[in-house]
Amino acid sequence: MDGNTIRETFLRFFAERGHRRVPSSSLIPPPESGLLLANAGMNQFIPYFLGQAEPPYARATSAQKCFRANDIENVGHTARHMTFFEMLGNFSFGDYFKAEAIAWAYELITEGYGIDPERLWATVYREDDEAERAWVDGVGFPIERIVRRDRFDPQGESLNYWWTHAAGPAGPDSEIFVDRGPKYGPEGGPDVDEERFVEIWNLVFMQEEVDGDANIIHPLPSKNIDTGSGLERVATVLQDVDNAFETDLFRPLLEVAESLSGRSHGVDASTDVSLKVVAEHARATTFLIADGVQPSNEGRGYILRRMLRRVVSHARRLGIEGGVLHPLIAVVVAQMGEAYPELVENRAYIESVAEAEEERFGGTLRQGMALFEDAAGSLEQGGRFPGETAFRLHDTHGVPLELTSELAQERGLDVDVDTFQELLEDQRRRAKEAVKRQDMTGDALGEAVARMSGQEFVGYQRLDADTTIGGLIGPDGLLDVAPEGTQVRVLLPVTPFYAEGGGQIGDRGEIRTAGGRVRVTDTQPGPGGVHVHSGIVESGEVRMGDEALAEVDREAREATARSHTATHVVHWTLRHLLGDHARQAGSLVAPGRLRFDFSHHSPLGRDRLEEAEYTANSKLADDDAVRAYETTMDYARSQGATALFGEKYGDIVRVVEIGDYSRELCGGTHVPHTGRVAVVRVLHEASIGSGMRRIEALVGPDALRQINAEHRLLEEVAQALGAGDADQAPERARRAVDRIKQLESELGKLRRGDRAAVVDGLAAKAEPVGGATLLVSAVPGEDVNGVRELALVLRDGMERQGPAAVVLGTADDGAKLVAALTTSLVERGVTAKALLEPAARAIGGGAGGGKPHLAIAGGRNADALDQALGTVPARLAELLGASS
Ligand code: SER
To answer: What ranges make up the beta strands (E) of 180-244?
Structure first.
């Protein structure tokens, strides 16, 4: 059975048993989950298990895109590690429980997949008699092959208990294993050997809520089922291969990597590692980009960037010179596009993001290689390559340690891995601490949210609301009273304040009680999506339970609504003019201004930009109605609604529709008619890297203010140029520039005459030293750039005479020395840096970096310049003697 058939068999099996087929949620989880990336099939159902939301169906089944980022470095080195995988699951929300879950799993495995029942083993939680009975009495499973285990092992790792590793739903579980036969290990079941006995399915009996340390707090409102079965594992077993990389899920990717590199898998270990990294990461990154992750230096973006860079550097190791991502993405889309249509829909976008990063990293990699050369160049054979440099290569240039080690080895060097590891650990520790600190302040908020049962958002209809103070959090935790001057976060059971989301910034305004007033400066979504109002108690005091009037700043909200509607019109315009690949990748919607990021490969240019601005404004002038309504996701899609990345696809979605042309899933606030926007004025358009462009624009009155400011500027320029009329300004400016150019060229001629005389004068000073020619001189009055230029001109002039060096010095901000060498001299083993060493010491400095052909040294001791230059001839003789 190939991967697609297994997935389909699983989903169909459960659909036939009354389960709703629910699409995978995005790899980007909602912020309140506290997760970086989706890591289990149950993620999207957490509110149903906790009883926070009413499930629209009692049974569900899904194939979920999952990502576990902890072992990126291990990928390729082991048969088993993978970052992206698919988890097949069936779920019951207070409907069926252990008996059915076990019976169905057994039926699917033995009849659906056709695995011999004799090969199966099961584990259950030590005290779970009910699960054991379901196995033995329910399906006739032999008790000898049921292992009872604790919830956790002595190190605290889960055995027969599953939780999300954060506060949330949890429960005991029963795991199902398949015996792969004696060739993989000894007899004795999963407790003896997990290579031979592989886990293919975990049935979790979700029945309690745990805190962040897995302590049980209380039972869940109902008994639920959450199962998870890794598709790659099932495929490994059913296709009877050694590991996932040999299944049909990975083979085609490996084959592309093989054919691009002309190497084969299974010949040598280091090639295998690179082939696997390329295959695994290409698949994972394709999915990450499809869900809207963009390469960056933090969070998920950093994971993506690291993985893309690993693909590229491993491809280089395999000798692949050209682009490697494009052909791999094509394979992933062909193979998985049917199950995950977002891959097909976003294909052009995925390619442009991946290729832009590939190109950019190509440059970084070259820089990294130069850094490596520099550091390695000064080391002796058998020397130690510094761990700090290896870490910098890894951290700043994305060159993996394994690549550095390999390059070092080729030169007989040995990388100081201990220091590298220490630095890496330090960095990880710092990252973890940052997360922990965030958790601590998060706790008080979580508690406040839990105490207030629910919240109603009325901000689509009204800008004020009568409400009460439902939660008060100060800088150090929960408060009963917040006196004047306190920085607070306030929860309200009814609120008109929009919480930041979908690019639109959070509302500001005021909360007034009989005793005091809070100035709200921002509203953010908190746990469970509750709106959290942040601000300061401006006067009096505010108490828990006080009656309150919550009032949004009308002017700011109106200006934001104009910007939001304008953003949709701009989005439509860009797609209309540039094509469907011009997808929204992010936006900022603020009062009077907007920022819009979209995928496109090249600059728009002035004409295109003006055309876009004109089209958008004409659309606005049509004064179409802006309507918002809720509907099912399926209906919205069938109407061609464009969905934003990272949006959670619940069953019911909000659609914002403008006229009959623009439809977007959107939770934001808008003006009722486009005419209210009045005008959008595009300020500029620029690249933000990775095939991504950004437009910034002003909206409504702010746009008019900008137009006026531009006008005024033009008038001032005209005045400065002495043009009576702004119309004449460009012509005047052109003439002025031409005149400047002409004068510059005349000046240059005069200067060059002088320069040529200087060069001739200096060249005459060259003298033979140990079979080479050496020119040493001070050049007073030149700055370091001038000296460098002179040295290069002189060196080039001497290139034909054989091995030669030019060393010039000047007193410029202390003393500066420049050495330039001909290639033939470098070939004789002399480097510019070595030549300068004694001289650099004399001026009290060090020869910094530099290349073999050119080095610059600086020191504070300008008085010693002549003495420093005096060391050069002997040094050159010494170096030539040493090398010959
Ligand atoms: N939540 C469990 C897991 O991820 C079963 O779906 O393994």
So the answer is: 197-210, 216-230
pLDDT digits (tens, 9 = 90+) for 395-439: 877 787 877 887 888 788 999 999 999 998 888 777 666 555 444
Q: What is the pLDDT of residues 834-874, one digit of tens each?
A: 999 999 999 988 756 678 899 999 899 999 999 999 999 99
Q: Which candidate, 179, 163, 171, places its Cα nearest to that of 130?
A: 171
- Whose structure tokens read 């900022």? 588
Chain-centroid distance, C-alpha 194: 34
Contacts of 696 (CB under 8 A, 6+ apart): 593, 594, 595, 596, 682, 683, 684, 685
Cα(63) to centroid of ligand 1, in Å? 12
The DSSP H or E segment spanning 877 is helix 872-883
Find out whether 203 and 102 touch, Cβ atoms under 8 Å. Answer: yes
**Residue partners of 44: CB distance under 8 A and separation at least 6:** 22, 25, 38, 62, 64, 648
Q: Rounded to an integer, what distance in angstroms lies between the CA atom of residue 289 and that of residue 177? A: 34
Ligand 1 nearest atom to the CA of residue 228, by list position: 6
Residue 57: name the closest of 91, 30, 103, 84 by CA: 91
Residue type, 676: R
Q: What residue ranges line ligand 1, CB within 6 angstroms?
A: 40-42, 89, 162, 202, 204, 226-228
- Among 694, 80, 690, 25, which residue's Cα sits nearest to residue 325? 690
| CB burial readout 330-360, b (16+ within 10 A) else e | ebbbebbeebbebbeebbbbbbbbbbbbbeb
Ligand 1 centroid from CA 209, angstroms: 15
Residue 204 Cα: closest atom of ligand 1: 5
CA 256 to ligand 1 centroid distance, Å: 32
Tokens of 419: 């220091």
Instruction: Spell out the residues 6+ positions from residue 738 whose beta carbon is closer than 8 angstroms to its own.
Output: none
Please state whether 689 falls in left (phi above 0), alpha (psi between -120 and 50) or beta.
left
- Of 158, 201, 227, 232, the one to substitute when testing ligand 1's pocket (max ligand atoms within 8 A of C-beta) is 227
Cα 217 to averaged position of ligand 1 atoms, centre (Å): 20
How far is the centre of ligand 1, averaged over its atoms, from the C-alpha of 527 (Å)? 22
